[in-house]
Amino acid sequence: xxxxFHLGIKALILNQENELLLLKVNKELLRGSKNDSYWxxxxxxxxxxxxxxxxxxREVKEETGLExxxxxxxxxxxxxxxxxxxxxxxxxxxxxxxxxxxxxxxxIKLSRxxxxxxxxxxxxxxxxxxxxxxxxxxxKVENLHNFFEQKN
Length: 152
Fold this sequence. Notes:
Strand content: 35-45%
Distance between the termini: 45 Å
Structural class: alpha+beta
CATH class: Alpha Beta
CATH superfamily: Nucleoside Triphosphate Pyrophosphohydrolase
Number of helices: 4
Number of strands: 8
CATH topology: Nucleoside Triphosphate Pyrophosphohydrolase
Largest sheet: 5 strands, mixed
């Protein structure tokens, strides 16, 4: 039997100390989900007529107040979490991009989708992301600083 998926576009944002920005999902908005609140990276599902770039810019701005100036493909993953849609649920395919922000040093302004944020070292981030992301992706996150060094 075929499965159905939505496409999500996600942003890996590092600060000057090579810490990754994570957002804690608002449990109240996890409609129909059996999941507790968990840590995630900014982003959201692509909407009809959107491009990858417009989606990531819109979602990061809505969720954090940050403005994206540059994106680069990093990896793709199938989420461990399924999303309820009507009487069923769908999987999530996540296209993940590294992002540089215009206003990186500004205070983060959360949307109602999230209840907290933090900048975590790469090892902590990898562990916190294991709720939503498969192990092969979280292992790759542990080498995120190498990816940024190669691009500079």
